[in-house]
């Protein structure tokens, strides 16, 4: 099948799957992912690896837009109001998940670098599927706000934890090879550069977007401007070895703080982006390799359990100590189980930079991703519905940020 | 909400731009690639470490092997693989016993006859001339390839099937192959005799090495380095081994003394090769050649006739052996294909097999290696340690002439036996 026909099949089947899963009361995201799995090389093979690669650019736009939307949580007033709470909550769930994974991996005799890498990867919660479920449920309320804040910060914490682990491993491996100054520079540079540089890049792109948005009145023009800025920042981030994830977040954060038109922009986005997201999730599903599940093994199962326990336990303890509502305490953890893109991205990075640890880490994480990517959105929807924050009017698309 | 002042924003933007510029220029060379965000890498998920990938790799190697399909040929008479070296020229491994003087193969889909142009004991390879053009292999310098690079060993079976095996490049080693100096390409291939004459290629089809037989040990000899020596005009000293399987030299006084020579000037047989003319004529290391066709011989130049193309069947050599002169008839022409096709087996050579040789010992310095067999000491055959010690004691201390054998090569060495 060529790219255009596979794109058509993707869109139509995604829609059909979305209708179908509504009857089953599971999230549309899961429907898209399942449709992707059925279409993908693992099962029917209608969408091939080459198709997936050719449609990569569309996925890039979709992810950039998703992260741009999430960047809106960094609005100054909101940060001032609940920012510190969210940071502490994120630290609690992240650190407990990472800690439990680290300890359990060491207990079953994995080498410490592997345990460290797995621990840092385990922090990541998939922003895209979580956000999509919230949107689909038209969710509003304290749990939704908290979740939205956490998925923004959580991925930054994950990236920092991973970069720190990588710096430590590189420093241990390289010490004495380049002299202390160069060793520290080589090990520490990615950490500083990816954080500071990505934020700076996102800020500049956001500034341009905010400035230009004043001159633009038409919705269509607004979309062109937005897509252009997002693609530019993702592209430049790749060029400069920066993190496209943080850069896109940073564009959204800049925009929401500098432009009066930001709400309108986000609203415009909501009305037009569903096809992108459908493509994004169907492609993600198509590339999930179901055979991975068979390879998960004891270590993989332990990773899944330890991470799940850490997320659930950490968010429960954190929200309890911060005196958050009962519903938040009970259901927050269930909303944090998804794991997808960032985890996969980090595994690929490990393959490039620390190849000696790649085989074990990739087997564990990639098999866990298959599991979490299917179960995660369902548990998120369950949490939102059970906490009573779902309005469940999927026919009416609503702004994610009001 | 209060908006920040424009001046403040402009300052922030300038700082960000400066940071990006500085970072982009100051990035260390080995600065790792980006931490990827989610989506772009998702499509790669399936391509990582799953079964399809292994199948893909196997397919890829098969594809790489087809790139050199026309370069690796089967030599029909000798039954070995060969590599097309340049237009009309094929190279293969030398082997124990003489190589047939002509061979046949299929080049560019047509059967052609090949004539051997360079072979013999000093060279671990054989060059064959083909009458027409053929596919030429490129020979990139192997040192351009980083350690760990994928390589492909490609050879043909006796049925002509093309086989290949992937492996990795580990490094290089300057080493001796008999008396020949070559650059060995170190790999993780477990090279077997059936691969002799086959090639080791980079995945883009460049010839990295040729698999050669060094006294029974299969060695990947770097093609680039090999080429230089193949082009060299052989010296007269090297032509005797090529044609007759013997290496000659002017005897030094110790040798003359140990071998009981008739006078100070003599040519001594230093080495013979199993199955070649000198070996078949019964010449052994330590024989002193004193005459050819009745004329006295004191120098290699006196044996010039042996190297000329002649119509006669054999030459008569006067040889001084064990204190008396014997007549030896050495065949004038190299062995023919019919006589020698399929040869290559050497039976029990007798003698005393050496289990170990100390590196710095006189024997070690004389090139004796573990596994070599000592056949005679000062011409007395030895088959046990006791005989060996007795023969050394009888040599009266000082130097003794040993005849040693390894893989079809027999050579004499003066070794100090009193240490």
Strand content of chain A: under 5%
How does the major sheet of chain B shape up? 11 strands, antiparallel
Average predicted local confidence, pLDDT of chain B? 76
Bin the helical content of chain A. over 70%
Spatial extent as radius of gyration of chain B: 30 Å
Q: Runs of chain A with pLDDT <50, length 5+?
A: 394-402
Oligomer: heterodimer
Q: Which structural category do the helix and sheet elements of chain B fall into?
A: alpha+beta
CA-CA gap between termini of chain B: 100 Å
Q: What is the rounded distance between the termini of chain A?
A: 42 Å
The level of helicity of chain B is: 10-25%
Largest interface: A-B, 74 and 38 residues
The total count of strands of chain A amounts to: 0
Shape field of chain A: globular
Strand proportion of chain B, as a percent range, falls in: 25-35%
What is the CA-atom radius of gyration of chain A, in angstroms?
20 Å
Strand and helix order of chain A: HHHHHHHHHHHHHHHHH
Q: How many beta-strand segments of chain B? A: 23
């Amino acid at each position: 099948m060529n790219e255009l026909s596979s794109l058509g099949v993707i869109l139509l089947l995604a829609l059909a799957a979305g209708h179908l899963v509504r009857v089953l009361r599971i999230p549309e995201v899961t429907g898209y992912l399942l449709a992707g799995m059925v279409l993908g090389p693992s099962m029917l093979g209608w969408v091939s690896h080459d198709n997936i690669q050719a449609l990569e650019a569309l996925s890039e736009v979709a992810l950039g837009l998703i992260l741009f939307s999430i960047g809106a949580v960094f609005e100054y007033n909101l940060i001032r109001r609940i920012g510190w709470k969210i940071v502490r909550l994120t630290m609690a769930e992240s650190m407990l998940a990472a800690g439990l994974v680290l300890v359990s991996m060491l207990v079953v005799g994995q080498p410490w670098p592997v345990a460290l890498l797995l621990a840092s990867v385990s922090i990541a919660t998939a922003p895209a599927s979580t956000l999509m479920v919230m949107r689909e449920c038209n969710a509003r309320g304290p749990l939704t706000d908290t979740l939205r804040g956490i998925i923004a910060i959580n991925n930054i914490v994950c990236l920092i934890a991973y970069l720190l682990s990588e710096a430590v491993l590189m420093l241990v491996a390289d010490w004495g090879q380049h002299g202390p100054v160069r060793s520290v520079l080589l090990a520490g540079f990615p950490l500083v550069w990816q954080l500071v540089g990505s934020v700076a890049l996102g800020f500049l792109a956001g500034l341009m977007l905010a400035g230009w948005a004043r001159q633009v009145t038409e919705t269509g023009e607004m979309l062109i401007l937005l897509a252009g800025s997002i693609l530019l920042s993702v592209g430049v981030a790749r060029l400069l070895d920066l993190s496209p994830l943080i850069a896109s977040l940073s564009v959204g954060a800049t925009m929401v703080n500098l432009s009066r038109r930001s709400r309108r922009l986000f609203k415009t986005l909501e009305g037009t982006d569903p096809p992108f997201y459908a493509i994004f999730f169907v492609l993600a599903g198509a590339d999930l390799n179901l055979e991975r599940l068979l390879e998960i093994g004891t270590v993989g199962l332990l990773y899944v359990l330890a991470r799940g326990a850490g997320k659930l336990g950490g968010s429960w303890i954190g929200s309890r100590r911060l005196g958050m509502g009962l519903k938040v305490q009970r259901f927050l953890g269930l909303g944090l189980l998804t794991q997808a893109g960032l985890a996969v991205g980090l595994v690929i990075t490990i393959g490039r930079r620390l190849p000696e640890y790649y085989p074990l880490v990739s087997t564990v994480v990639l098999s866990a991703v298959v599991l979490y990517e299917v179960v995660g959105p369902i548990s998120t929807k369950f949490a939102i519905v059970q906490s009573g924050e779902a309005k469940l009017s999927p026919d009416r698309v609503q702004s994610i940020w009001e | 909400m209060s908006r920040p002042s424009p001046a403040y924003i402009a300052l922030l933007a300038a700082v960000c731009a400066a940071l990006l510029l500085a970072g982009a220029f100051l990035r260390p060379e080995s600065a790792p690639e980006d931490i990827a965000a989610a989506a772009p890498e998702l499509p790669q998920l399936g391509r990582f470490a799953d079964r399809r990938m292994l199948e893909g790799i196997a397919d890829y190697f098969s594809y790489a092997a087809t790139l050199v399909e026309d370069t690796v040929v089967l030599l029909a008479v000798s039954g070995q693989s060969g590599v097309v070296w340049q237009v009309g020229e094929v190279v293969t491994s030398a082997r124990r016993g003489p190589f047939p003087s002509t061979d046949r193969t299929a080049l560019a889909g047509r059967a052609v006859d090949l004539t051997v142009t360079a072979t013999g004991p000093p060279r671990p390879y054989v060059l064959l001339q083909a009458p027409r053009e053929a596919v030429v292999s490129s020979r990139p310098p192997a040192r351009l390839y980083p350690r760990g690079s994928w390589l492909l060993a490609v050879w043909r079976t006796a049925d002509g099937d093309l086989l290949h095996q992937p492996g990795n490049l580990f490094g290089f080693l300057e080493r001796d192959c008999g008396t020949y100096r070559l650059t060995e390409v170190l790999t993780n291939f477990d090279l077997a005799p059936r691969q002799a004459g086959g090639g080791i290629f980079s995945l883009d089809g460049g010839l990295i090495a040729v698999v050669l037989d060094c006294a029974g040990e299969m060695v990947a000899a770097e093609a680039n380095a090999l080429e230089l020596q193949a082009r060299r005009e052989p010296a007269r000293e090297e032509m005797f081994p090529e044609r007759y399987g013997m290496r000659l030299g002017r005897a030094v006084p110790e040798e003359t003394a140990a071998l009981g020579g008739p006078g100070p000037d003599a040519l001594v047989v230093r080495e013979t090769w199993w199955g070649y003319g000198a070996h078949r004529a019964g010449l052994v290391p330590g024989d002193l050649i004193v005459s050819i066709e009745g004329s006295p011989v004191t120098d290699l130049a006196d044996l010039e006739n042996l190297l000329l193309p002649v119509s006669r069947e054999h030459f008569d050599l006067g040889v001084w052996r064990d204190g008396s002169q014997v007549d030896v008839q050495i065949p004038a022409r190299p062995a023919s294909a019919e006589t020698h096709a399929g040869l290559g087996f050497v039976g029990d050579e007798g003698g005393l097999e050496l289990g170990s040789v100390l590196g710095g010992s006189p024997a070690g310095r004389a090139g004796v290696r573990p596994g070599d067999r000592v056949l005679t000491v000062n011409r007395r055959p030895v088959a046990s340690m006791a005989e060996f010690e007795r023969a050394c004691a009888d040599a009266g201390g000082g130097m003794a002439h040993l005849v040693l054998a390894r893989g079809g090569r027999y050579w004499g060495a003066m070794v100090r036996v009193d240490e």
